[in-house]
Amino acid sequence: LVNAENLLKTYGSGEVEVKAIRGVNFDIEPASFVSFVGPSGSGKTTLLNMIGCLDTPTDGNLTVADTDVTKLDRNSSARFRGDNIGFIFQDFNLIPVLTAYENIEYPLLMVQNRPAVERKQRVMSLLEAAGIADMKDKFPDQLSGGQKQRVAVARALVTDPKLVLADEPTANLDHATARNILNLMKEMRDSSGTTFIFSTHDPKVMAEAEVTFTLEDGLLKGIRQEGGE
Amino acid sequence: LVNAENLLKTYGSGEVEVKAIRGVNFDIEPASFVSFVGPSGSGKTTLLNMIGCLDTPTDGNLTVADTDVTKLDRNSSARFRGDNIGFIFQDFNLIPVLTAYENIEYPLLMVQNRPAVERKQRVMSLLEAAGIADMKDKFPDQLSGGQKQRVAVARALVTDPKLVLADEPTANLDHATARNILNLMKEMRDSSGTTFIFSTHDPKVMAEAEVTFTLEDGLLKGIRQEGGE
Ligand SMILES: Nc1ncnc2c1ncn2[C@@H]1O[C@H](COP(=O)(O)OP(=O)(O)OP(=O)(O)O)[C@@H](O)[C@H]1O
Ligand SMILES: Nc1ncnc2c1ncn2[C@@H]1O[C@H](COP(=O)(O)OP(=O)(O)OP(=O)(O)O)[C@@H](O)[C@H]1O
Ligand SMILES: [Mg+2]
Ligand SMILES: [Mg+2]
Predict the structure, then answer these.
(1) Are B40 and A175 an interchain contact pair (Cβ–Cβ within 8 Å)?
(2) How deeply is A215 buried, as exposed, middle or buried, from its count of CB atoms within 10 A (0-12, 13-18, 19+)?
């Protein structure tokens, strides 16, 4: 689903230049669980942001769902994202003036323009699957950290995207709640063929990944396949 | 250092009433590492916020450093916090328009009014101890998740407080970086007699705690002491 060749991302210039991604190459198959691991500052979020068309590479090639995403302009980029990609951000990015329900409903309404009956059914289904149905009318500042994280997860999954980019989706969750979320994701992978790419430090997530890429200082230092070394 | 008796916190009222803390009792000794664990939504952040005078209990007694904090008005509360308590928030709460250095310096300047030479020495010392000295002039939106978390840690420790409340301080950190931060905290406990209270899901943090309180649905369900069951 995703192919990267010599991908490079540099922030700033001159003395404050940071090479966050220094030339990476990888292939990611559809309907898979893939994780990127690595120390803080190694480039995981930067990489997810480029795959998700939220940021543009400085150089290199990047294809997502048969589309060369390095060549998309701003409007095409936004449309491509809305049609294909769900995000779980490291800092959740919930809209403070919308309730949990409305935050999850948002991409169906504003981006995909789905009919009301379908929206309600999809939103309620995910609220229940994430164990937060009784939170649906609460605003983000009335939710615990892990409850907010699960609203972010539900919002990412509600459009049934081809690709979900999950930046540390279990960081604020207790063990049982994290397992519940991972099972929900595995179910979508198996039933809808969704591809999940994780940035993570959580051994539970790593254990589920079929392929694990290890980043260090902007470079891929290792690739581990399930069942392999 | 902290004593709670029949502590209760209720949000909202009537049909939307949430009893986040339902009557808890505990004692916390000075110069200790204590952790509160429990499922998402069990009341950990609510409890830390009350201990830290960021929120008031609905009922019950709460004494911190020999002060009955339930009786402090808004100004006294802010002064007490500034003099005694450092916070690491679940969502970091960095000030976006200040650099990493300035975020860490803020409590020394605006709250404790320390002299310039002392401020610089303390801020640089913590930037280095947290492994982010080369980040000092970056703004929060130029930092990775784990780098922001470490700025939040440094800011909480810079005033050498009696009590540090750390709400999931290692959630976004890789193993080695988390251990580094925990060692820094243990050093402060041993050298300055600082008390650390953690809310956490991280086994590494739990393993270092001398006392672990288990919360479930707003109640204390278990207390485990180091070396005990
Ligand atoms: N907008 C930006 N401007 C300048 N530098 C940046 C920016 N965003 C990230 N960086 C730098 O690029 C590097 C990689 O950042 P990135 O957020 O990808 O790391 P990460 O692997 O996600 O880390 P973490 O595990 O801490 O979240 C870091 O050194 C960071 O400081
Ligand atoms: N401002 C608020 N208004 C209404 N309800 C709230 C508010 N803050 C928290 N709650 C509710 O109180 C309960 C406890 O929240 P708290 O943030 O203390 O949980 P937590 O143990 O820190 O969870 P997590 O591990 O997910 O961070 C939750 O059910 C939450 O929805
Ligand atoms: Mg990151
Ligand atoms: Mg919390």
Answers:
(1) no
(2) buried
B90 vs B8: CA distance, rounded Å: 21
Q: Hey, are the CB atoms on A177 and B39 less than 8 Å from each other?
A: yes
Summarised one tens digit per residue, pLDDT across range B140-191 is: 999 999 999 999 999 999 999 999 999 999 998 999 999 999 999 999 999 9
Q: How far is CA A94 from the centre of its chain?
A: 14
pLDDT tops 50 at residue A229:
no
Spatial distance between the Cα atoms of B153 and B36, rounded to a whole number of angstroms: 18
| Mean predicted confidence (pLDDT) in B92-119 | 93
CA separation for the pair B77, B106 (Å, rounded): 18
Chain B positions with Cβ closer than 8 Å to A: 11, 16, 37-41, 44-45, 90-91, 137, 142, 144-147, 149-150, 167-168, 171-177, 201
What is the DSSP secondary structure assignment for residue B27, as one 8-state letter? E
Q: Is A142 in Cβ contact with B201 (below 8 Å)?
A: no
Dist. CA A81–CA B181, nearest whole Å: 37
Measured in Å, residue A218 CA sits from the centre of ligand 1 at: 10
| Residues sharing a CB contact under 8 Å with residue A137, sequence separation 6 or more, in sequence order | A99, A100, A101, B16
The answer to whether A40 and B135 have CB atoms below 8 angstroms apart is: no
Q: What are phi and psi of A45, to 5 degrees?
A: -60, -40
